[in-house]
Amino acid sequence: MRALISTYDKTGLDVFALGLAELGWELVASGGTAAYLEELGLTVERNLRPLLELSPRGVEHPAPVVLHERAQFPIPALSFLLLGTLVAADWPLPPRAVTALAMGLGLVHGCLNGVAMQQAGTGVLGLLGIMAALFVLVTLVAACVVALQRPWTRIVVRVAGSWIAAMGLLMLGWSLRGHYGRW
pTM for this structure? Predict the structure, then answer.
């Protein structure tokens, strides 16, 4: 595995880089960071070209989700935008539509998180823990929203939905900015 290290403040970098090297990581750096690591006696690759060619966005702004070597799609941003808009608009969806939406988003995010967990080496217990925590969280939030009786509480939930949609738009803008260059 390779680790790209690039930092202005070198405080604590010696311990961090030595730890990575002991674990078998190949270190990649440029400029002053590479010189600093070489002074510590570490082997550092200075050629960043292969890393820059992995993504059209470069290493400065990593892709939120990489579905293909060059195709990037901001799935979390679109999920926030969709769900936030639905809550803010207070659209009454039929139960089948809610079920289909939950299953679709669950499958997409589950696949993406499963791939990330597999790469990180997290086992089945980690997956079960995440599933249990998410189930409890969603159940508690849903119960709190359903229990709201006063008319103003519905407005509070809609405002929260608008904030969630705004976060989705912001995330989408950041991912597009990184993909299409600085505007």
Answer: 0.49
